[in-house]
Amino acid sequence: MTRAEVTELVLTAKRMKGLTWKQIHEKVSVSTSPIVITAALLGQMRLEPNEAEKAAELLDLPEEAKIILTEIPYRGSLPQVPPTDPVIYRFYELIQVYGTTWKELIHEEFGDGIMSAIDFDMTMERQPDQKGDRVKIGMSGKFLSYKRY
Amino acid sequence: MTRAEVTELVLTAKRMKGLTWKQIHEKVSVSTSPIVITAALLGQMRLEPNEAEKAAELLDLPEEAKIILTEIPYRGSLPQVPPTDPVIYRFYELIQVYGTTWKELIHEEFGDGIMSAIDFDMTMERQPDQKGDRVKIGMSGKFLSYKRY
Amino acid sequence: MTRAEVTELVLTAKRMKGLTWKQIHEKVSVSTSPIVITAALLGQMRLEPNEAEKAAELLDLPEEAKIILTEIPYRGSLPQVPPTDPVIYRFYELIQVYGTTWKELIHEEFGDGIMSAIDFDMTMERQPDQKGDRVKIGMSGKFLSYKRY
Amino acid sequence: MTRAEVTELVLTAKRMKGLTWKQIHEKVSVSTSPIVITAALLGQMRLEPNEAEKAAELLDLPEEAKIILTEIPYRGSLPQVPPTDPVIYRFYELIQVYGTTWKELIHEEFGDGIMSAIDFDMTMERQPDQKGDRVKIGMSGKFLSYKRY
Amino acid sequence: MTRAEVTELVLTAKRMKGLTWKQIHEKVSVSTSPIVITAALLGQMRLEPNEAEKAAELLDLPEEAKIILTEIPYRGSLPQVPPTDPVIYRFYELIQVYGTTWKELIHEEFGDGIMSAIDFDMTMERQPDQKGDRVKIGMSGKFLSYKRY
Amino acid sequence: MTRAEVTELVLTAKRMKGLTWKQIHEKVSVSTSPIVITAALLGQMRLEPNEAEKAAELLDLPEEAKIILTEIPYRGSLPQVPPTDPVIYRFYELIQVYGTTWKELIHEEFGDGIMSAIDFDMTMERQPDQKGDRVKIGMSGKFLSYKRY
Amino acid sequence: MTRAEVTELVLTAKRMKGLTWKQIHEKVSVSTSPIVITAALLGQMRLEPNEAEKAAELLDLPEEAKIILTEIPYRGSLPQVPPTDPVIYRFYELIQVYGTTWKELIHEEFGDGIMSAIDFDMTMERQPDQKGDRVKIGMSGKFLSYKRY
Amino acid sequence: MTRAEVTELVLTAKRMKGLTWKQIHEKVSVSTSPIVITAALLGQMRLEPNEAEKAAELLDLPEEAKIILTEIPYRGSLPQVPPTDPVIYRFYELIQVYGTTWKELIHEEFGDGIMSAIDFDMTMERQPDQKGDRVKIGMSGKFLSYKRY
Amino acid sequence: MTRAEVTELVLTAKRMKGLTWKQIHEKVSVSTSPIVITAALLGQMRLEPNEAEKAAELLDLPEEAKIILTEIPYRGSLPQVPPTDPVIYRFYELIQVYGTTWKELIHEEFGDGIMSAIDFDMTMERQPDQKGDRVKIGMSGKFLSYKRY
Amino acid sequence: MTRAEVTELVLTAKRMKGLTWKQIHEKVSVSTSPIVITAALLGQMRLEPNEAEKAAELLDLPEEAKIILTEIPYRGSLPQVPPTDPVIYRFYELIQVYGTTWKELIHEEFGDGIMSAIDFDMTMERQPDQKGDRVKIGMSGKFLSYKRY
């Protein structure tokens, strides 16, 4: 069984049981962000064993799928690059437009190094707005200095 | 004169005069974010005429460069895709890892549509942290519903 | 079951029952454009639940397929880029030839921003012409201004 | 002198003289669409000799540039594919989402063939709208039947 | 059933029955060129219903395959670009070597426009030659003028 | 001096002297096809020394350019693949649609081998037609059998 | 049955019967080179009917596989380009390093033309050497002159 | 001065002095193969200092060019991959057709490892033949065993 | 059975039996590095027959899988390039940043040649560190001089 | 002045003054590794101001070049991917062969996370060996755990 097959099993179970990601998250974990749980069930993060246990029960997953959910996946969720789906493409477009700006401003503030995408967390929420609600994203990544040696 | 030549003039002037982006921003605009000003001077956004006037004066730019800074550029700042520079690549990696998760959670919260990358604003700041300071990014884009017709 | 499998089921049913897209559209929806209905059945848009109900009945689709038709798909319909099929390539060619012109004229009329592909609708019809009938396409997308912040 | 150099001369003259495409069009031609004139000055269409004469006078172009404007260019205006600029990308996205739908509906209405991108004309205008003005595009291309032989 | 599966059924039947394309063509159509018939059976053109009837009988194809042969396919027959097969690559090489020459000479003779690949027919035959027989190809495509509007 | 620079010199001279390829061909060679002469002046074939002599005189080319015209070029005339120019793209589309058909029919008639693109000649002419004149192309390439050893 | 499936059948039979390519070659043909026989069994050349007969018997191949082995394949054996396998990559590297040199020296010796890859034969053998044995390859391809017409 | 500029200087001097690679080789080195000398002058190998001395004198190269010829270049001579030039493409095609065969036969004879492209030498010569002379190439590369550790 | 299928069998068995690579290595070989054993079981190296015997027994692999594990694989383990998985990408990034530096320093120390990736061995271990443990990698490859001939 | 121009100035000065990287390193820094210094002078790392001062003096670099050497570069040193130069390609090949193995073993030892390419240092040295000296590389990167949140 491959990771992609597990993801397909998850999506089928979610669909046929009429569950939302929010409901799945609440059943699977209290301490972990819904972003991490969703990403794990889509094959990009791993679950802790007890989370996988609950997920497997909720979604009627077979034993091997349950174990696979605790394994570290080969990451990369996009079938093509640049992504063809409009929701995901807009994030890619932000990098095209702001990439060099982010580089300049991070370096000016922190020096030579990067914002970690590993020691990283994020939030996503609805921001009410009279002219139309907004998607609000917060990201926080540890600054890592380039080591001089 | 091309937009790329203007960007090179800007970078040379900044370097030889020992200016920071922060200093340039303060001289060029009070109401606009430093992210927008920096992006414009790097060829990805446009300046208002009075901002371009101040920028040209500060950076000793010729007349044509000043006008070009007020023009809407052909956007896209990356010489290769995926970006080879580590700072910018990490953002690209976030899309690879979280792209499908963002899609699922935005749709579950808002329905069919996208987070606009046009009616969009962002902030970037230093987040002090005992284990090492963090880069904190806030993004906010209007949710646009797919029109049904 | 994947979205691609649903599309294949739809095409087989349409073929074996001898239906046209026009007939399917008439049976599935009165208020929605045939373009949207066809795009949904080809895996690029979603149907409203009652539309999916009617489509599933008309095309003998299984329960899971019916639900999938109401889900928001991962968009992107082209197996290669540039598209190899001549009908679709001609649209791509129009972008190659007119892309920068559209950009200039939209900016001159509206300022900095884009024509939305989300708050967007279109029509397609036959335009009788003595020298040979023509395909007439009308597009209308909301202009979105680049936010300055 | 290459076509790209002519385009750059045109853009510099337009910028330094403070002209709009609308003004240039009015001076260069009465019978031809502003879309064609703009596309020609951007290196994607050709001008008639008398149009080139007027364009060269208005924009102070040298003799060789004037002749080049009457030559048929090597068409293709995009520096990268998919296009990175958001305005142009949205058109590309429409092909990604609607490409197969257009193919199905054109074939159902007209049979096997294509909408010509050569025997083709188009319009672009502002469509006033209370919720925000819209970009309205009309396209009309002759249907060409695949010849059976 | 997909178009690719129909093509594989055709090839298997042709092989196991020991048929040539020439024999298939003679059985399937009298008025249509063997090039069109072969291309249709390889998934790039469509057959008329009576031709599909005869092809299905000759090759023992199931009902759905017979209908698919009358449908307009998503065209594009090459698994990679540039094509790796030497026979097909040589045609690609001719475009690499002569592409700009063809463009210049067509424009000089006909003005701005293209040779249609839709209103197009061709022949292919053996040309006896003492130094070794030659493949002789005749192509004829309607010239389409770029519309000025 | 590079081959590309020679081609640009040729195009400038042709343009400023108001010459056609037909006129150039008549002055440069009597025995060689206009296709070969044009291709050579566009950097894809070589001229014989006496032809280069005449071409250099007619087009006021410097000594080095004259020698370069007799050298065998690094062939390949397309700035992008697939070609963006509509005239050239149509030939590419023919390979996409007919590539596998040509392969099948050549093999059925000749056995295993290819149509040479080296021992190859071609013609291009106007074919008058009431419904619109046609571009008529004749190609003839020696069949080369795959050697068994 | 596809050509790739035949190749997999061949490899499984070879493996389970413990055969070498040398043994297979000896059983299948006396007059043909082991390179050609191996290439055919890997899907890149065709076998003569009597060779296919013997191969099918030796490897227990089904009837359709036997016929497919006599058919001319769609050539191209590399799953990616450049090839990732080190043995095959080294040949690719030789073209990267020596490609332009080969072109210059072939042209200087033979004039304008190519070394045929069709009227071509080769040998591969072990060359004993005290410092470590060497792979010795001999290639011989007919020189084909570019036809002038 | 870059390596590419040195190559262009070499080609211009060779052309204007009417030299052949054979003549250059004879003047530059007695012990080294003409293939190595030509490759070095085309920017893919290095010359020994005394060879560079003679080459610089023969071709009137400036001091820096002379030194650059003794430096180890960044190898890779092809402007595109796959190569568009027919002479070089044929070698690429041989890898496409025979790549997996070479892999199988080398492994069967030598075990796991590769033919070195570094401890490698080659010859190229004219092979007279009544049916048309042939290009004969001999390659010899040391077999390197994959180290087990 | 393909190599990829063997790898999937290995991973399933490892997972369901709760084995680590370390445990597998200890059972399969004493003299060979765990890196080589793991790479072989992932389809990139081969096992010795006795190692394959033990691996097959430990992992309940069928006979054909056991033989395949002793065969030399078609190497190349990455589904996309550049690799999307963060762990593997970081190595790729090191080449992007240090590639030309390694080239310069190896040449300065050793002359013209390469570090072999075939006569090569490596180690990977945990390096305890107060600020956080480190991954320590040691590589050693034979220097191969470019042969002059 | 661009970073690439600075690198070219550095290489020209190094060449004309007959300096080695080792000599440059000794003059420019005592505490920093020669790998970092070389990488900085090749445009991939930055120098400290006092190092840049010494480098500029040693290599006669202009003022702007000196400042640029202290700036953080846009990293990425390879003109093509995969790299065509054999020295650099061998590192790329190691990733192709060992990439998934490194991933498995790092995860088994450390859990979910990566080896940092930022908090990273390395050494490169000659390892004497009777069968031929070896290139010995030592790498050490901090293990970064994927943050769970």
TrEMBL record, chains A, B, C, D, E, F, G, H, I, J:
This is Cyanate hydratase. It comes from the Bacteria. Residues 77-149 form the Cyanate lyase C-terminal domain. The active site is at R90, E93, S116. InterPro entries: Cyanase, Cyanate_lyase_C, Cyanate_lyase_C_sf, CYNS_N, Lambda_DNA-bd_dom_sf. It is an enzyme of class 4 (lyase). GO terms for molecular function: cyanate hydratase activity; DNA binding. The keyword Lyase applies. NCBIfam families: cynS (TIGR00673), PRK02866.1 (NF002773). Keywords: Lyase. The gene is cynS. CDD domains: Cyanase_C. Gene3D superfamilies: Cyanate lyase, C-terminal domain, lambda repressor-like DNA-binding domains. It catalyses: cyanate + hydrogencarbonate + 3 H(+) = NH4(+) + 2 CO2. Catalyzes the reaction of cyanate with bicarbonate to produce ammonia and carbon dioxide. Signal peptide: none annotated. Its EC number is 4.2.1.104. Belongs to the cyanase family. Pfam families: Cyanate_lyase (PF02560), CYNS_N (PF21291).
